[in-house]
Amino acid sequence: MKLTKSNFNLSCIDMANFLLGKILVRKFENNTISKGRIVETECYLGGIDKASHSYGGRVTPRNQAMFMPEGTSYVYMTYGMYYCLNISSKEPGAAVLIRALEPIEGLEQMENNRLKKMKNKNSSKKFKNIELCNGPSKLCISMDIRKENCNKIDLCQNDYLWIEEPGEKENFVVVTSTRIGVASAGEEWANKPLRFYIYQNPHVSKRDRKAEKNVEFPT
Questions:
Q1: Which residues fall within 8 angstroms of residue 182, CB to CB, at 6 or more apart?
Q2: Residue-number span of the structural domain to which 135 is assigned
């Protein structure tokens, strides 16, 4: 079942945890569908967050989606060549970065998309399943998520990119860790526990073994 607008009416931190285990679905122009289970997320808290594109409450052409209604996609380019997918939460300027997926359907299409992106078009490389979406830019390539085709869209009101409940709910343990690649925001914000991932899932982009020692297991 596709998530509705009310499902996204959450704070950034709550949404980051809520999205774990949910299914990101991409329908391509050739009508094939790829799906991936969300296994890692990261929070950007808006105006107060020195690592956020919307720090200080600034609105720019680039980050407008962060101020749009909850459940809006925010796709931006990093390093001048890779895209990242975020979803706006209910706080203005706050969004959740989707960091990693566990591919579950349409893996051939994902691999084809990854191969197309490679500089050597004649490469015979074969991607392992765990290599397809174990990072924010990798999943965008695999799902063909770009600023031109997937930015500023309502994830509840379109037929080519959405999030849905898994067929069977699975119990899992969540690891709370620090974000990746935000050292320039300063020590305080670089060390905020704003990254969340499913414990022992091999598709996570980067494990934090120190944080994993503090995981609380259900009794």
A1: 51, 189, 190
A2: 5-168
Share of the chain above pLDDT 90, in %: 89
148's CB contacts (< 8 A; 6+ apart) are: none
Cross-strand bridge partners of residue 87: 73, 96
Rounded Cα–Cα distance for residues 151 and 161 (Å): 10
Cβ 146 vs Cβ 140: under 8 Å: yes
Note the pLDDT tens digit of each residue in 168-195. Answer: 888 999 999 999 999 999 999 999 999 9
**Which CATH number fits the domain that encloses residue 63?**
3.10.300.10
- For residue 190, being part of any structural domain is answered with no
In angstroms, the first-to-last Cα distance of the chain is 30
- Compute the distance between CA of residue 73 and CA of residue 161 in angstroms, rounded to an integer: 9
147 CB-contact burial (10 Å; exposed 0-12 / middle 13-18 / buried 19+): middle
